[in-house]
Design a protein that fits this description.
The chain is α/β, with parallel strands linked by helices. It contains 11 helices and 8 strands. Strands 1-2-4-3-5-6-7-8 form an 8-stranded mixed beta sheet, sandwiched between helices.
Length: about 280
């Protein structure tokens, strides 16, 4: 059961939200949903695996949008964005995100990626470096050793039934084809199992200022997050006490009622983005 829970924590994302402006962008064959709120310098929010813009960032997006424009897309097969006939990949998600920003007339943005969304964020910085001004990597990874061995064992039995109930219900409530949930889970598992460790040189190619965030009881080890922060050329590390995978962001499956951590995390993100 612990192995399934660990896999679910990264397969599926996190929280609840207020109502933003919403829209769809045509990206090739993909009709990509996004949420857009606030004004000012753009901040792109990239949700966790199997999650949605609302379930990953609902707890902090309203605060972040007070002083900046937040743009939160939903990736292929996730939330409101219907699946199409192609596998899921971190590289393709990064390219889809870049195309969305082009459609919205955004030439440069800050980027916050949670869990699998952090891998997408790094791919965006690598594949489309001119688009990324600053990077926040929340509970993310670049090699298998970021996780305990039982995490990978959990994928042997991953299914929609193993999703945290609030996330499963969130998907079913907004997906244009709720019956596609099994396919989304299968594609996400395949993407995870196909993941290859990145060489350190790949991380070193990300030259923008970066904030690495992790919980002290995260699925991602603190040691791995610290190693990322050491390898990235211009990075700093924030470790949140008493936090699991996304607790500090207000993740539904890891939230602690009354916890000050989401407000603390939002304030830390704002301070980092406002640095000169």
């Amino acid at each position: 059961m612990r192995a399934l829970a660990l896999a679910a924590a990264v397969l599926y994302g996190c929280a609840v939200t207020s109502t933003p402006h919403t829209g769809y962008a045509t990206i090739g064959n993909l009709r990509m949903y996004y949420e857009d709120r606030g004004g000012g310098r753009p901040l792109v929010l990239l949700h966790g695996g199997g999650s949605t813009a609302a379930t990953s960032f609902g707890a902090i997006a309203p605060r972040l949008a007070r002083a900046r424009r937040t743009i939160a897309p939903e990736q292929q097969g996730h939330g409101h964005t219907a699946d199409i006939d192609r596998p899921l990949s971190f590289e393709q998600m990064a390219d889809d995100t870049a195309a969305l920003l082009h459609e919205l007339g955004v030439g440069e943005a800050d980027v916050l990626g949670f869990s699998n969304g952090g891998v997408v964020a790094m791919q965006l910085a690598i594949r489309h470096p001119r688009l990324v001004r600053r990077l926040i990597l929340a509970s993310t990874y670049f090699e298998h050793a970021a996780f305990p061995p039982e995490f990978w064992q959990g994928f042997d039995h991953a299914s929609p039934e193993n999703m945290p109930q609030p996330l499963r219900e969130g998907y079913l409530a907004v997906a244009p084809h709720p019956e596609a949930l099994s396919a989304m889970v299968a594609k996400t598992v395949a993407m995870m199992l196909a993941f290859k460790d990145w060489p350190e040189s790949t991380l070193r190619s990300i030259a923008v200022p970066t904030l690495v965030m992790v919980g002290d009881a995260d699925v991602i080890s603190v040691a791995h997050a610290a190693r990322m922060a050491r390898i990235l050329p211009h990075a700093q590390l924030a470790v949140f006490p008493g936090s699991g995978h996304g607790t500090y962001l207000g993740a539904v499956e890891a939230a602690k009622p009354g916890s000050p951590l989401p407000e603390l995390a939002a304030g830390m993100i704002e301070a980092f983005l406002d640095e000169r």
